[in-house]
Amino acid sequence: MRAWDPRIEEMPIDELKKIQYRYFKSLVYRLYSFSDFYHRRMKEANVHPDDFNSLEDVKKLPFMYKTDLRDSYPNKIFTASTDELVRYHVSSGTTGKPTVVGYTQKDLDLWTQSVARSLTACGLGRGDVMQVSYGYGLFTGGLGLHYGAEKIGATVVPTSVGNTERQIELMQDLNVTAIACTPSYLNHMGEVADKMGVSIKNDTLLKTAILGAEPWSEQMRDHIQNKMGILAYNIFGTSEISGPMFCECSEQNGIHIWGDIAYTEIIDPETQEVLPPGEKGELVMTVLQKEALPMIRYRIGDITYLDESQCPCGRTHPRIGRLSGRVDDMLIIRGINVFPSQVEHALMSIPEVLGQHFMIIVEREGTLDNMLVQVELKQEFFSDKINDLMDIKRKVSHTLKNSLNVSAAIEIMAPNSLPRFEGKAKRVIDRRNI
Ligand code: ADP
Ligand code: K
Ligand code: ZN
């Protein structure tokens, strides 16, 4: 199928902008009348819904932060009553206290619609069997992908995370063609399959992976695609905007943000200026049609850039580039900004180590930050000659220094000695604030 909803997905850009504006305008009117929170904000900013005459006028409103949700815990900020709510999700609180999000039936329908468009854009549809190995439950990943996959007529195997050997057996027995999970879990699955003597490439029908919920690198994509003989697509979302819902298309070159669903701004996190397309900054989203939990200029915090160029797939909706982590994932090591995803990127380019399995440990000695990077050696490079190991360590050290501009101590670890993750990977231990 070319597109799930070609009328919307391929609509001329100026028409799309008109639709965005129309949704935005009715959103501000609705919130002015029905949301204490937003009514107060508009008063404070000295604006009235009549003052919004273009989409760019969104700038007249202040940003929204995760703390706005925490301060109104659990649901004081919602604009739907319990009568109208049909579901809650609760974020895992990767960066602090958990937040509660809520959905009306229409909110769920739109989320499902968004996932349906995204999965279709990756070539999935009827006849596909999709194993959903994201966590089911309070986390949005499992149910989000589940409903979207059913919508497009795929057959869902709702395995959730864990019990990996059984997942691999089911993948074979049920002729699974697609999987949705975190990139770290798919890597882990690959290793468990190896141990079971199962080659995902040769012994299964898997051809597509929909991977997200954490940053991953282009090198990781190459690794997964080559090892498993599949195509891997990047899907993005956060619980505050509904859940995972925006994804790459067959071009694998940027994540389409459905413009009728969300309006994207990229800002300089320090000056808060809106940046032009192509410039990297912090992702800010306004969700245009949400009923239960409206989000205007929400500081998502992930670093990316906007791409408004026409995608060869024919979809007119703008794209964002691969997300390299949240502003608050960024480590500052001796004044230099380091994202864990950059470390992964560098390690993946070194043939002797398993770049997908690493840990970063940061400590402070006096006033100096010390970064230790642990990475696993590949089995085939295992050697009892100390010199061989020293050579590899030097190589890792040089590669990291070149790409991060900061030196790190390196520890080469035995294969399979570092933790494996079923959900989002936690690769940083920062002991500086303890
Ligand atoms: P929590 O905040 O509890 O971790 P969420 O599901 O809301 O739960 O997490 C959303 C965050 O996960 C995003 O802001 C981003 O940092 C990360 N994330 C999700 N998908 C991707 C992706 N494809 N690439 C990079 N990071 C991602
Ligand atoms: K997160
Ligand atoms: Zn495209």
UniProtKB/TrEMBL annotation:
Q: Where is the AMP-dependent synthetase/ligase domain?
A: 79-285
- Keyword match ATP-binding: no
Q: Which domain of life is it from?
A: Archaea
CDD domains from the xrefs?
A: PaaK (cd05913)
Q: Which GO terms describe its molecular function?
A: nucleotide binding; phenylacetate-CoA ligase activity
Which InterPro entries does this chain map to? Adenylate-forming_Reductase, AMP-bd_C_sf, AMP-dep_Lig_C, AMP-dep_synth/lig_dom, ANL_N_sf, PA_CoA_ligase
Give every AMP-dependent ligase C-terminal domain span: 335-432
Which biological process, per GO, is one annotated for this protein?
phenylacetate catabolic process
Keywords, comma-separated and alphabetical: Ligase, Nucleotide-binding, Phosphopantetheine, Phosphoprotein
Tagged with keyword Signal: no
Pathway noted in the entry: Aromatic compound metabolism
What is known about its subunit structure? Monomer.
PANTHER family documented for this protein: ENZYME, PUTATIVE (JCVI)-RELATED, PHENYLACETATE-COENZYME A LIGASE
The name of this protein is: Phenylacetate--CoA ligase
